[in-house]
Specification:
Elements: H1 3-24, H2 27-43, H3 52-76, H4 91-95, H5 97-102, H6 105-111, H7 116-127, H8 132-139, H9 143-160, H10 168-184, H11 187-193, E1 194-203, E2 215-216, H12 218-230, E3 236-243, E4 246-253, E5 256-266, E6 269-276, H13 283-287
Parallel strand pairs: 1-6
Antiparallel strand pairs: 1-2, 3-4, 4-5, 5-6
Helix pairs in contact: 1-2, 1-3, 2-3, 3-8, 7-8, 7-9, 8-9, 10-11, 11-12
């Protein structure tokens, strides 16, 4: 492997990781895909590659599709709701509004409703603005078919895309208010910041305590959250961090990470709560330096 080929892979690594994560909803699986991409890149005759970026994206997409089909069977046996693995992001991602919206927890759940090929085409076209011929090469279809798939996927996503017109400062204020209510075990504090139709989804993966079905409605959510924290014999603290491009809370019990709470906010009220407590999905966040909002 030449120095140039290594440099090319490193130069495109962030792009490749984001493509894999958008398709899989798992940082750990995205890292595995990158390793597989690297192994295939090592064996490639790079002197015959005209467009290194396109070639690497093609490998990453194909490996992600293979893994996504395998993961689908795993998720069918998953205990309770499945949520994407939270990804710690830097402040500059939050400033890139379009990218932040595409990797938000709410949007990642919408992508879960697409077929593997539809998801790949949507991500490559709508998120990364790749041409139809380039996408066709990546997913093993002809360009006219890819156009049809892109149209179908776009229509499906638009019908379900989460709407949000809240400024970053408003989002942060709502998240921090929710955190204070959580720390104090104040049901009214929760009710003050959530919408009447708020939905809470919690992912414990059968390892940690979590609701096996979504909790719907402000009163039920407030009771569930404050009732659960009231039973914990440990000091609860909430740290505001950036997860998937948006403010979220890292919940700690006696300083130990217990879970990540992500949010979807509309019209100054929280409409979606996404709690990931499965310790297998917290490893990456826990190992990285927290990027707390300043």
């Amino acid at each position: 492997m030449s120095d140039h080929a290594t440099e090319a892979f490193v130069a495109h690594r962030d792009l490749l990781f984001t493509v894999a994560y958008e398709m899989l909803g798992s940082s750990a699986d995205a890292e595995d895909v990158l390793q597989e991409t690297w192994l295939r890149w090592v064996k490639a005759d790079t002197e015959q590659v005209d467009d290194e970026r396109a070639y690497l994206v093609r490998i990453t997409t194909r490996q992600s599709l293979n893994r996504l089909r395998t993961m689908k069977r795993r998720r069918e046996a998953y205990v309770g709701p499945w949520l994407p693995e939270p990804m710690l992001t830097a402040p500059d991602v939050a400033e890139h509004v379009e990218l932040a919206e595409n990797i938000s927890m709410a949007m990642m759940l919408v992508l879960e409703t697409l077929s593997p090929t539809e998801r790949a085409v949507f991500v490559l076209r709508e998120v990364f603005d790749l041409g139809y011929e380039e996408i066709a090469a990546a997913v093993g279809k002809n360009p006219p078919t890819v156009r049809q798939i892109a149209h179908r996927a776009r229509r499906h996503v638009e019908a379900r895309r989460p709407r949000s017109v809240v400024s970053p400062s408003q989002t942060r204020a709502s998240v921090e208010a929710f955190g204070r209510a959580l720390e104090s075990g104040d049901p009214q504090g929760v009710l003050d910041v959530v919408a009447p139709h708020v939905v809470l989804m919690s992912d414990g993966g059968g390892i940690k305590r979590a609701a096996l079905h979504p909790v719907i409605g402000a009163e039920k959510v407030a009771r569930y959250i404050t009732g659960g924290t009231g039973k914990v014999q440990a000091e609860l603290s909430c740290e505001t961090i950036l997860i998937n491009g948006h403010p979220a809370l890292a919940l700690r019990l006696d300083g130990v990470l217990d879970g990540i709470m992500a949010f979807h906010i509309e019209d100054d009220h929280i409409t979606g709560l996404y709690f990931v407590g499965n310790p297998e999905k917290l490893t990456r966040v826990e190992s990285e330096t927290p990027l707390a909002l300043r």
